[in-house]
UniProtKB/TrEMBL annotation:
<keyword id="KW-0460">Magnesium</keyword>
<keyword id="KW-0547">Nucleotide-binding</keyword>
<dbReference type="InterPro" id="IPR030386">
    <property type="entry name" value="G_GB1_RHD3_dom"/>
</dbReference>
<dbReference type="GO" id="GO:0005789">
    <property type="term" value="C:endoplasmic reticulum membrane"/>
</dbReference>
<keyword id="KW-0342">GTP-binding</keyword>
<keyword id="KW-0378">Hydrolase</keyword>
<dbReference type="GO" id="GO:0003924">
    <property type="term" value="F:GTPase activity"/>
</dbReference>
<dbReference type="Pfam" id="PF02263">
    <property type="entry name" value="GBP"/>
</dbReference>
<keyword id="KW-1133">Transmembrane helix</keyword>
<keyword id="KW-0812">Transmembrane</keyword>
<feature type="domain" description="GB1/RHD3-type G">
    <location>
        <begin position="41"/>
        <end position="287"/>
    </location>
</feature>
<feature type="transmembrane region" description="Helical">
    <location>
        <begin position="454"/>
        <end position="472"/>
    </location>
</feature>
<comment type="similarity">
    <text>Belongs to the TRAFAC class dynamin-like GTPase superfamily. GB1/RHD3 GTPase family.</text>
</comment>
<protein>
    <submittedName>
        <fullName>GB1/RHD3-type G domain-containing protein</fullName>
    </submittedName>
</protein>
<keyword id="KW-0256">Endoplasmic reticulum</keyword>
<feature type="transmembrane region" description="Helical">
    <location>
        <begin position="427"/>
        <end position="447"/>
    </location>
</feature>
<keyword id="KW-0472">Membrane</keyword>
Amino acid sequence: MSEFKGEPLQVITTTGTDKGNSTELVESALSRILLDKRVKNKKVVVVSVVGTFRKGKSFLLDFFLRYMYSNDKSNWLGDPNEPLTGFHWRGGADRDTTGIYMWSEPFLITIPSGEEVAVIFLDTQGSFDCRANMKQSATIFALSTMLSSKEIFNIKDNLQEDYLQHLQFFTEYGRIALESGYAQTPFQHLEFLIRDWAFAYEYPFGRKGGMDLLNKRLEVDDDTPKENVLLRSHIKSCFADLQCYLMPHPGLTVAGSPTFNGRLADIDTNFIDQLRDYVPSILSPESLTVKSINGQPVTCGELMEFFRAYMKIFQSDELPQPVSMYEATAEVNNLNACNRSRNLYVQEMNEVCGPRKAYVSNKVVDDAHQRCQEKALKEFRRSPKMGGEDLAEGYEKKLIQEIEELYMNYKMSNQNKNTVEHFKTPMVLVTILFLFYFLTGVLDAVGLSMISNLLLIPFWLLLTALGTWIFVRCTGSATEIGEQIDNVAQSLVDYVSYFSVLCSHLGGGVVCQMEEVGKEFLDEQELVLVFRGA
């Protein structure tokens, strides 16, 4: 077989493990492929392979390339001693692919309708790599799902529940990015490729055994837990077509030899037989699916724009931050502890100044707040929590802030119960009116009618203010005027209170001086009596 003409080009890079924008689009590489004049206006078929890292995704894609480059499709596997080339792959435990790679040469294939389409291949970074955070894994998986017309979910050993949960998580992340209101299912073809299948006696290798297994895994009955029913409903609603294929183990040489280079001679014949059946079922012209978005076929040039648009979404702050199962559990755990402590504060404060309690002094409210806050914080700190001290410290600060807001609400609610506060302004105005009325009567009685008449001016002004205040409170209009009258009344109360305190201090000083003088006088009288006795 001749050497491949193309090469893998990285079109999505991962730039770090921080929780910021950790993926970047390599437009120069992408435009070189998709904007080539041979394919720019042709409809595109996008085949991608996703899954956990170090499970043979790139290895599988290179067999796809071998099929596409072969001129003899009946013997496309070629020379059994030829090394496997194309997308870079290797054995071992550490990751090899980062970001997303695209094969640089699109394949022009005539499909049964007679139309020529461009077929491109995507190789993706493995999920749950120890050097990538959850946002990177979610972004890579979601991008691949959004951009592919045929996505292969590479799975090892069995179709377990955790794989379905991961698929739900990543596809939901992609569906949010696409926005709601889609007229059709958002994604096209998903194929579960289960590698190293060990239960061929139950479900035979190949597509039939795979579909029987898939239907078994996705079926629900009355005993199925509700969350599992929702999980299966979600997956079915996301993809227009679901398929499954069971592959045997490729052999011990593939799994354990550091010098294995992909030669068919080193691969188990059972695996080769299934490979000979599987690859054409994916890539033969009648099996190809043109990429469509919302029911409209997409060209290579248009796919370039979708790459740009989707990357902008994932690089923005519009999407929720994906977190790991542990992080999500730790946050919920701390949130529950925070809620319990806040509820304890509310319960304790309600015993002192709750909505069904009568008005109490501000000091009682303040003392209760200090006591209940300490009790709530003690409850929060003693609650078992996941996530470490840093996470707990953040939730404790949030708890203190919420308690402070509740405290202010309790103070305001308690103040509103004070009947005197409600009627402070009219009581002040009526009191002053009564004083003016009494004073004018006294002045008239002693013949000072001229001064009495002058006092009628502030008397009528106060009476007008009282009438205005009542009008504002009853109608709810001109509230600014009512607030000004309240402020004036409060100022008068503060003024009187100030002089009352001042007078009490002055009076106390006079009494003390009189006591000192009296004490000195008694001491002198006592001395006189002593001398007289002598």
